[in-house]
Design brief:
The chain is an alpha+beta fold. It has 3 domains: about 70 residues, no CATH class; about 90 residues; about 150 residues. A 5-stranded mixed beta sheet has the order 4-5-6-7-8. The longest helix has 27 residues. About 20% of the residues are buried. About 10% of the residues have low confidence.
């Protein structure tokens, strides 16, 4: 879980990934939550041309019947126009369906200005319009619905690309006095840190050796590493994360860290608490944190040892700096680089 959490945190720190995730989440919220749940689209006063196909057919039948009972050419023409370019096809369907006097159909056709040449050709269940009557894609100079939808989709896509490009190309590049993110600074300190040369100290080199750095502002700091044997066998895990912060406001003022060692052959995880000078000397705070593990004061070069049934870990403070502000002196860390070296017990 720690490895998954760390990977997720690193990926979300990438502006491109964050922009894409934000766009997708916003799209889903706007579409499903707002569009369907809170403010769904409600159709009112729809024109006959917007009806479902079977209802359009029924509407055309009622138009013919109404004209047969009350021959009002003006009303018939208005109703015909309301059905748009599909009116001729619908009339042909009503006529092909039978059940009405052909003379009634003919009278209605004349009332709405349809000649015999305007009648669509019916082949089986397929209705086609004579070539001279094929309407262009725009009715009355308006924009076709399909074109409008495509244009709107294109606009949304362009906006999404523009936002993503801005986040990726501009937000990721420091401008002027901009400062790199805490995670980026931490990675640079880790890269520059010199690992301990245990062989030069007359000791056996460790089986695994890791380096990690905390920077003020990384409120989710929680680093972990897998411990594997030279043959690739999984032996356990180790790591360090925030244990205690002091003061109020953001970012967190970290006063203590938990350094832990998990051994797959042991029944429990061993933990020690690395504390600032102020936290270590505050008996109340030290006693409270002691329930998490043995307290240990952080000092440059200081080492603490964690042991399990088959593993031994030496945690060394490679570099550190205290932060300033309204908190007590030497109470929270501005920066901490920690080395974790692991040996397998024989």
């Amino acid at each position: 879980m720690d490895l998954i959490r760390e990977t997720t945190r690193d990926r979300l720190s990438n502006p491109l990934v964050a922009g894409i995730v934000g766009f997708v989440v916003g799209l889903l919220i706007g579409w499903i939550v707002i569009g369907w749940g809170i403010w769904p689209v409600i159709w009112t006063d729809a024109a006959p041309a917007d009806l479902e196909a079977s209802w359009k057919n029924d509407y055309m039948g009622m138009m013919v019947d109404s004209y047969a009972l009350l021959p009002d050419a003006v009303a018939a023409q208005n109703r015909w126009d309301n059905l748009g370019e599909e009116a001729a096809q619908l009339l042909a369907q009503v006529e092909a369906g039978g059940g009405r006097d052909p003379l009634t159909i003919q009278n209605f056709r004349q009332a709405v200005g349809q000649s015999s040449g305007d009648v669509p050709i019916i082949e089986g269940d397929i209705i086609t319009t004579p070539p001279e009557e094929v309407a262009d894609d725009t009715a009355g100079g308006g924009i076709p619905r399909t074109t409008l939808i495509l244009v709107m989709c294109g606009v949304v896509a362009i906006l999404a690309v523009a936002v993503t490009a801005y986040l990726f190309l501009f937000r990721r590049q420091p401008m002027g006095d901009d400062i790199a993110s805490p995670i980026a600074q931490a990675q640079e300190y880790t890269r520059q840190a010199e690992p301990t040369d245990f062989a030069a100290r007359g000791e056996m080199p460790p089986m695994s050796q890791f380096m990690t750095t905390y920077m003020l502002g990384d409120d989710l700091f929680d680093d972990s590493f897998s411990i594997d044997s030279p043959s690739g066998e999984f032996l356990g895990e180790c790591g360090v994360g925030i244990s205690e912060s002091i003061g109020v406001g953001e970012p967190k003022k970290v006063a203590a860290y938990e350094v832990w060692l998990f051994d797959k052959n042991d029944i429990q995880t061993v933990t020690k608490v690395l504390m600032s000078k102020h936290a270590y000397e505050d008996s109340t705070l030290r006693d409270r944190l002691q329930t998490k593990g043995e307290p240990f004061q952080a000092e440059p070069g200081a080492e603490m040892i964690l042991e399990t049934a088959t593993l031994r870990l030496v945690a060394r403070v490679v570099d550190m700096a205290y932060g300033s502000g309204p908190t007590p002196p030497q109470s929270h860390f501005e920066r901490l680089t920690l080395e974790l070296a692991i040996w397998q017990k024989i």
